[in-house]
Amino acid sequence: MKAVILCDFDGTIYRGDVYEDLLLKFGGSDAYELFEQYKRGEIRSQGVLESGWDTFHVSRGTLEAEMAGMEIDPDFPAFVSWCFEKGVKVGILSDGLDWYIRAVLANVGLENLPVFANQLQFEGEKAVFSYPYLDTSCPLCGDRFAVCKRNVILDFQHEGQKVIFIGDGSSDRCAAPAADLVIARRKLRIFCQQEKIPYLSFETFSDVLEQRTRILQAVEGSGELSTIIGEDNR
Ligand SMILES: [Zn+2]
Q: Taking a C-beta distance cutoff of 8 angstroms, is the pair 192, 199 a contact?
């Protein structure tokens, strides 16, 4: 079976937004407004990441110590274990930063999962941002977000893999029409309803685990997707 489950991070695996939490605690007085502008779509991901970084008034070590105490959805590790048992790969597909995603996943020993996200590397203490998945031509993400989730999904599909996508927010919109199955909450669920994209609903990874039979059916292609997801989610 060739399949991969790609999960958004902020709002999906981590209940809040890691970078927002760090900025509100350790950023400058304009950090709040920066994030509000980002949510209103007035500045792009790159803007909030880089301008936000410049407002931090603590060391990188302090930020990393804070992240060592951040908790993810308690059922996500069990979900990953189940996927591995079934031979399904798991990756993180996020418009956040690989730096904080790996740091928070390390709290549960999952820092080695593949991460498709914006990148932050350090040259000494200097922060260097890069955007390997940016696609300004994508109609659903190109003018706002820095990771085109659709393109990452299409790359897996071109290799003959089925892709199941789990997400919640605006940066997930271009992923939804591309994925073989969408598992959605919050804004992404509303988007799927508006666009008539079939989806399974979740609030927590406990809900995702409860639907594992349907997920496996979708992965294996056993049956029509509309039958697998049922009447409620079309
Ligand atoms: Zn896109």
A: yes
